[in-house]
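Weekly structure sync, notes
Attendees: PL (lead), two postdocs, one rotation student
Agenda item 3: pending single-chain targets
PL asked that the sequence for the first pending target be pasted directly into the notes so everyone works from the same version. It is reproduced below exactly as submitted, 388 residues in total.
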Amino acid sequence: MLQNYIFTSESVSEGHPDKICDQISDALVDYYLSKDPYSRTAIETVATTNYIGVIGEVRCSAEICSNDLEHIIRQTVKNIGYNQKDFHWEHVNIDIKVHNQSKDIAVGVDSAEDKDEGAGDQGIMFGYAENSNDAYMPEAIYYSHKILEALSNDRHGGKLNELGPDAKSQVTLKYINGKAVKAESVVVSTQHVDGKSQQDIRDIVIPYIEKTLPEGWMPDEDEIYINPTGRFVIGGPVGDAGLTGRKIIVDTYGGYAPHGGGAFSGKDPTKVDRSAAYVARYLAKNIVAAGFADKCLIQLSYAIGVAHPISLYVDTQGTGKIDEERLIQAVNNVINLTPKGIRKHLQLNKPIYQRTAAYGHFGRTPDNDGGFSWEKLDLVDRLKDELK
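Predicted structure, written out during the meeting:
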């Protein structure tokens, strides 16, 4: 394996146009699950100047009012911080076109006397973990997220009124002998109020980079790029249209590990695009935390309407302390990898998804209400027992 290299990952803030759409779609998923924990949702959102459109398919036992959906959409935009000209949470035009789920899809997923609950679609899903930090995440995407989160927290706290909601970051790390040793470059582009110069924004942002990166990791001054175009006043959907599911690499591992191709946001947990990616991360993280490998990549594949996975692949990338075939056997012994088994084990039929739709679905802290349950390390002891 390559030991000395340079690698880059990017993140985007919750005010990025695509992330606005992800958060709206997942806010609606949460609403449906709060009314019926077995709701089915496949919701897509698009945003542009003074317009938000929501389309998709749902199934829910409760009566859902379109006025409630519109309120949730407006509240989501408000919480992100959009009250600017041409995209204001209170005045933006909202168009909702959501209809019932296809019966042909539903019959493949529904359980019956002669079949278990099937996968909501075919697909391949990946999970990854490494022991380079407490979050078990690749470091370039981890620090890209953290820089923007720090800026966002202070913007929401009223300390950064000069900045707007829309922002992007990019962190390039230098690796020696397979370990990250410093940042080669950092890029941050952030929306700002009119009248602020590029140097003004640079002076605001650089301390956040310094606070986020480990000591001694700061790149050279001329390798720190803050608003490289010089001006970023027009942002959000006014500057660029947004769409659900267009930031899947930001959502996962920043390109450091594969992504199966399916987006997460807008989908209920019967969709293995989402739930199987979560359980693959859960398994990879617990394998690494148990000390069986320094790095672990897991792939799962499913066929629509079929309960059990078509394949399970484990790769410890040359860092394993135990044979991958034994890891596969242990995984199959400690967890049921059917869609229903995943949902029950990780308790995914809860309204816990809007919080995942910005700053990554992985490397987060588990919440007391069940959010980010796939980040728990509660499988470590069971894996150790299996692999004595």
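Discussion points:
- DSSP finds ten helices and 13 strands in the chain.
- The mean pLDDT is 95.
Action: rotation student to compare against the earlier draft before next sync.
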